[in-house]
Amino acid sequence: MKSFKQFESHTVALNSAEDDNLGLFNIHDEKVMQRLNGFVGAIAQQEYMQPDAAMKQLNNKLNIMGLNFVEPKIESDKGNASVDLTQFGGRYGKTPENSNGPMSQGTEIENGDGVSHKKDGGLKIEFNWEKQNNNQFMVSAKLI
Length: 144
Fold this sequence. Notes:
Mean pLDDT: 82
Shape: flat
Order of helices and strands: HEHEEEEEE
C-alpha cells in the first residue's frame, strides 16, 4: 500500500478568460479587452440552428462578468448588427464628477451605461451571421 506522500500529483494549467488575475471588469485595460474578444470570438466555433440562440448564450456568459446587451432582432438569413454593452446594469445617481450641489437643476444625476466613464466611446458588440447550405447559421461577434 502506498502512503499519501508516495502519490505523484499532476497539475494542468488551463488559461481561460475567467481564470486569470486580470480582473475582467477592467475593460479599459488592453489585455482584458484582448482576452474578452478571444472569449467572445469563440462563439464562431460552432453552427447554430438560429442566430439568436448564439446571442443569448453569449449574453448569459457575459452577464457572469457584469456585461450585458440588448439582443438585436434577426430579420434575414444574412446580416450584421451592433449593440451597446452596459456594465453592472449601468450607472445611475450622483458621482464625484457631476455633483454640483443641491441647486444644480437635476444635472448632477448620471444615467449612463457603466462603461463610458472608463473607456472613451463606450463598448459595443458587433454580430455577423450567415445561413449556411445545411440550414445552420454561422455567427461571429467582436467587442469594439
